[in-house]
Design a protein that fits this description.
This protein has about 100 residues and is an alpha/beta fold. Helices cover about 35% and strands about 25% of the residues. α1 links the parallel β1 and β2 (about 25-30). It is globular and about 35 Å long.
Length: about 100
């Protein structure tokens, strides 16, 4: 569909699989800081960021790595630890529109 996919995970095996499926870049979040890496690779943030896990770290990182007027898509449900509640950076969401 023309998207330049950047896959983020904490295991090299899953990142290798993402590359095999066409991801242009991969980021191992256990070794690298994903927000800064995505901002650098995209020149200002992702047009669309998808959180498929649903824990606080992945949800907040997904929101923080979008560019102005970008889209955050939440697919993953929260875990028992979050119990459906994740604090989001509302000021950033509003500033980025």
């Amino acid at each position: 569909m023309g998207a330049n996919v950047i896959a983020v995970d904490v295991t090299d095996e899953k990142l290798d699989a993402a590359r095999g499926e066409g991801a242009l870049h991969t980021i191992n979040a256990s070794k690298d800081e994903p927000i800064g890496a995505i901002m650098g690779l995209t020149g200002g943030g992702a047009h669309v960021s998808i959180d498929a896990l649903g824990v606080k770290a992945t949800c907040v990182n997904s929101v923080m790595c979008t560019r102005k007027r970008g889209r955050h898509v939440q697919v993953g449900l929260t875990s028992g630890a979050e119990q459906g509640q994740i604090a989001l950076p509302i000021d950033i969401i509003v500033l980025k529109e």
